Amino acid sequence: MGRSTGSDAVSDLYAASYARLVGVVALVAGGRAEAEECVQEAFVRLLGRWERVSRLESPEVWVRTVAIRLVANRRRNARSALRALLRHGPPVDASPPSGDRVDLTAALRRLPVGQRQVVVMHHLLGYGVEQTAELLDVAPGTVKSRLSRARSALAGLLREEASNV
């Protein structure tokens, strides 16, 4: 991809990578709508930083990292809002996810966001434990623990689905 003018290069990057980025971020976010919002926000942030980001080996990796961090920030903000709601009002009535079929994407949605993040980054994007830890700003032991818990949970969820077929 050429690194001509900033807006042309960002447009080229957007056209070449948007669908792929939304697909990956959707696995972390648990849904396409939130993934689209986070990827779009990451591209908006890229516009103001293109001069610096364009010098990186892969600007797409930068956009993906920002989008995944935005998902994490949204979850953290949602948890804070929920804690405030619980302090000031009745508990939220949330029904469990439903569906006729549990596939990998649906099973990932049932994992806590921290476990989803490490599974997607480690197993689907190929990051090592250390790199995943650095990108998520957590300790490597936390990544290992989340991976272990996520693998156990996914095995149970997918086994449950296989027996329901």
Automatic annotation (TrEMBL):
Statement: the UniProt record of this protein carries the keyword Ligase: no
This protein's record includes keyword Ion transport: no
Domain RNA polymerase sigma-70 region, residue spans: 13-79
SUPFAM superfamilies recorded: Sigma2 domain of RNA polymerase sigma factors, Sigma3 and sigma4 domains of RNA polymerase sigma factors
Source domain of life: Bacteria
InterPro entries named in the record: RNA_pol_sigma-70-like (IPR039425), RNA_pol_sigma-70_dom (IPR014284), RNA_pol_sigma70_r2 (IPR007627), RNA_pol_sigma70_r4_t2 (IPR013249), RNA_pol_sigma_r2 (IPR013325), RNA_pol_sigma_r3/r4-like (IPR013324), WH-like_DNA-bd_sf (IPR036388)
UniProt keyword list: DNA-binding, Sigma factor, Transcription, Transcription regulation
Signal peptide as annotated in the record: none
Xref: Pfam families: Sigma70_r2 (PF04542), Sigma70_r4_2 (PF08281)
Domain RNA polymerase sigma factor 70 region 4 type residue range list: 103-154
CDD domains for the chain: Sigma70_r4
Similarity remark: Belongs to the sigma-70 factor family. ECF subfamily.
PANTHER family, per database record: ECF RNA POLYMERASE SIGMA FACTOR SIGM (PTHR43133:SF50), RNA POLYMERASE ECF-TYPE SIGMA FACTO (PTHR43133)
Protein name: SigE family RNA polymerase sigma factor
Organism, scientific name: Dactylosporangium maewongense
